[in-house]
UniProtKB/TrEMBL annotation:
SUPFAM superfamilies named in the record: TPR-like (SSF48452)
Organism of this sequence: Maribacter aquivivus
InterPro entries cross-referenced by the UniProt entry: SusD-like_2, TPR-like_helical_dom_sf
UniProt name for this protein: Starch-binding associating with outer membrane
TM region positions: none
Length: 474
């Protein structure tokens, strides 16, 4: 009987192990992801989530809008995100997925066309991350499945300047696109619909942006002049790195998907109100509504950072415009635009970093910004209300760029930290000793999951302080 049982067991083992891999493979869950699907996912997920983040938390920091309630973040308790204010996981999730695309492009010649876009997206997201937080996990990050789940924090300087960093990836991304001779098209590209030249222009505009960002730390004039002279950057609204939202779910602007009470939590800030009113700027009617108690369809802003317990009347302040709720098909996720590029070049010309016509670049940026927001440019706006030489030209350039970036408030806050413009206000009931924050704090999850490296980074920022400048701001 023992022999019979042994034979039966042997037969069972052989029978069960034959075709084991085929039987236990889920045909509905492919083991290898297509880079086209992942590229679409990275662009959409990052753009959609950061548009919401930038308009909620970013617009509070940049003083475009004010929160009436759930407003600890608006009072600058940045460690208490509520309706927004936690971009860390958005960056790392998408940087991780983008790294998969980059690895696939280098491992399989059929995917070579994806190397350029993957490198450019890596540079773009890494810059956004480090500009908000300063030193962050980078060189050892995105490798949790093969190397470490507790990556070290790299210095911001190294993330920008070292091999594998922001400028290096932009240069290598451009080179990969320029040298690509294959016939396989770039699919999943919802920014440029597979146009490789569009990605090159995007990368060059990003180089302009990041060179200006570090211009107080290194000599960038020759590099910037070379790009400006070559002229191969985003220079028209038709070339913008954007994708469109829709009027209805699931692809509408996320703010429109909030309950009406949450949507109405955001009103026009006093800072934005004063700037737009002083310029007689008609874009105020696109971005906000007249306040309900107005007798003349006027607008009214509220100083940021109120003590919510004091209570205010919603009818006394201007709510967000219909473009952010009912008509979000007019909005887009904004990665990089011609208006921002021209404002950056205007600043560079004003500072003598490039040889160019400052006023022409400024006027072009303003004209494109009105077109971007689909508002008619008043005939005398550039000669009277917003003339470059009316006051401080540099302040005028940065202020116009700040207005134009209203859907991307983190950018407005970052540029305020870099330039000091526009002149933001001391908020109403500050929880940060009346100081405007100059970096985002590391999230509490880092202290729990990456404690040793977090502790080092925290010590370098005076206990994870939001008042310690990042490298390019020192």
């Amino acid at each position: 009987m023992k022999h019979i049982y042994s034979i039966l067991i042997l037969l069972l083992v052989v029978g069960c192990t034959k075709d084991f891999e085929e039987i236990n493979t889920n045909t509905n869950d492919p083991v290898a992801v297509q880079p086209s699907l992942l590229l679409r996912q990275v662009i959409y997920d990052f753009g959609e989530q950061m548009s919401y983040e930038g308009f909620t938390a970013g617009n509070l920091l940049g003083q475009y809008s004010t929160a009436l309630d759930f407003n600890l973040f608006d009072r600058h308790d940045l460690k208490s995100p509520q309706l927004g204010g936690n971009p860390w996981p958005i960056f790392y999730q998408n940087l991780r997925d983008n790294e998969i695309i980059l690895n696939l492009s280098q491992e399989n010649t059929a995917y070579t066309v994806y190397e350029g876009p993957a490198r450019i997206m890596k540079a773009y997201m890494a810059a956004g991350l480090t500009d908000l937080f300063g030193d962050v996990p980078y060189s050892e990050a995105f490798k949790g499945d093969t190397e470490t789940v507790t990556p070290v924090y790299d210095s911001q300087e190294s993330i920008y300047m070292d091999e594998g960093g922001i400028f290096d990836n932009l240069d290598k991304g451009i080179a990969a696109l320029e040298s690509y001779t294959g016939t396989i098209a770039l699919e999943g590209d919802i920014l440029f619909n597979g146009d490789l030249d569009g990605w090159i222009r995007f990368a060059n505009s990003l180089k302009i942006k990041y060179l200006m960002r570090v211009s107080n730390k290194i000599d960038i004039a020759s590099q910037l002049q070379a790009i400006a002279t070559d002229g191969n950057f985003i220079d028209e609204n038709s070339e913008n790195a954007i994708f469109n939202f829709t009027d209805g779910e699931p692809n509408s602007f996320r703010l429109a998907q909030l309950r009406v009470g949450d949507f109405n939590n955001y009103v026009l800030s006093e800072t934005m109100d004063e700037i737009l009113t002083s310029l007689n700027d008609p874009r105020i009617s696109r971005m906000y509504k007249p306040f309900a108690n107005s007798t003349d369809d006027g607008y009214n802003g509220l100083l940021n950072g109120i003590d919510a317990s004091a209570g205010v009347s919603l009818a006394d302040y201007s709510l967000l415009g219909t473009i952010f709720r009912e008509n979000t098909g007019l909005l887009d996720a904004n990665f990089m635009t011609s208006m921002e590029t021209n404002f950056l070049l205007a600043e560079a010309a004003q500072k003598g970093l490039i040889t160019a016509d400052t006023e022409m670049l400024y006027n072009t940026g303003v004209t494109q910004a009105f077109d971007y927001w689909q508002v008619d440019l008043p005939a005398d706006y550039l000669t009277v209300d917003a003339a470059l030489d009316d006051g401080n030209p540099l302040e005028n350039i940065i202020t116009q760029k700040w207005i134009a970036n209203s859907i991307n408030g983190y950018e407005g806050w970052v540029e305020y930290r870099r330039t000091g413009f526009p002149q933001l206000k001391t908020i109403s009931a500050s929880l940060n000793n009346n100081l405007i924050p100059i970096r985002m704090p590391y999230p509490s999850e880092e202290e729990a999951l990456n404690s040793v490296n977090y502790t080092n980074a925290s010590n370098n920022t005076e206990g994870n302080s939001i008042n310690v400048p990042v490298w390019w701001d020192e």
